[in-house]
Amino acid sequence: MPELAAFQADFAARLSQPCTQRNGFVVHRNNWMFATIEALGDLFPTVCRLIGAEAFEGFAADFIAHEPPASPIVSRYGAGFADFLCDQPWVADIPYLPDVATIDRFHLEALLAADAAPLEPASLAELAPADWATLRLKTHPALRIGWFTTPAPSIWLAHRGDRPPDDFAPDWQAEGIAITRPGHEVTARLIGRAEHRFLFGLRLGETVSEAAVAATSLYPDEDFAALFARTLESGALAAPCA
Question: Considering the entire predicted model, what is its pTM?
Fold first, then answer.
């Protein structure tokens, strides 16, 4: 096998070097670059839709040169894409784009996350008031939450359909999003500051009571009963393991 290892090392080295003539290596490298750009577009479809395929191909090629794939598993690629966008001077004109890339990544991670049954409201019906003080609930493995200083969640949601609105103009304000997969389909919805704090607290290991007190202390106008009902209905929480 030493010959195979030497061949692979030489092959990889040649692909990374500038090519001055069109040969088999040029064709292979071009095909590899095209396939990687296409894969990146599949991983970040909303970013691609927002700026157009031609522009996306250009800076995707720059990202690939900056951070080539380290694994043949496509879904593992692109974790640093949003950070890469933040470092590009032209992104100052589209400041929400890195956040949209982050949400695209959330969607992929939710899709690939482990399965788990969502928590059913009926399972909490028999709890005594004292039980809530010590109750700990786990978030669903697919749950991804984020809070952004841009309206990226609204922009992302509006551009996920087949026909994005031509006159879409969200209010320029901070927004949160929760993405999960309670069944076979990934779902996403806007969330407020209080729900973001509540879910973040549960993820940190706080009891329901601790997370609720923290959220309502920070945001006293929030109707926590309605918030908790929305959280349960969305499938953001996982049923206890049997």
Answer: 0.84
